Amino acid sequence: MTDPGLLPVRGASHRSRGVAFGLALLFGVFGVHRFYVGRITSGVFQLLTLGGLGIWALVDCVLIGTGNFRDVDGRRVVNWDPQERDPASEELPPEVLEEIDALHQHIDDLTERLDFAERMLADPSRRPRADA
Q: Smallest Cα–Cα separation from 38: which of 75, 80, 4, 64?
């Protein structure tokens, strides 16, 4: 039986992959990148062992660089830009989806009305005559 605490959480971490990678390159043997993503216990062990004599730190650099490093919640640290969001990982509530559908229908209705108005204005038989 699998421990539910070990299962990865779906979605991307809000932590920056660029920051984690930079910390791993500069201070990897001290485990600073692990503290950054919230993995305090393994960060302490990495600090005490000097990054597993460098091997553990090197493996972490490879994992972060390939986007396979995980934060304390089990989410992958994949976004280079901290402001960037992974749209596939964020699910919208049903109420928001319904509102978006309603807005799409409203936009379609307005588009139809605008097309009709443009056709009416473009019809030469509806233009006022200059002789009058």
A: 75
Contacts (Cβ under 8 Å, ≥6 apart) of 87: none
Q: How far apart are CA 80 and CA 43, in angstroms?
A: 21
Is this structure's pTM higher than 0.85?
Answer: no
Sign of CA dihedral 96, 72, 55, 82: positive
Report residue 116 CA to chain centroid gap: 41
Question: Mapping DSSP to helix (H, G, I), strand (E, B) and coil, where does residue 51 land?
Answer: helix
pLDDT in tens, 37-89: 888 898 898 888 887 788 888 888 898 888 888 888 888 888 777 665 555 55
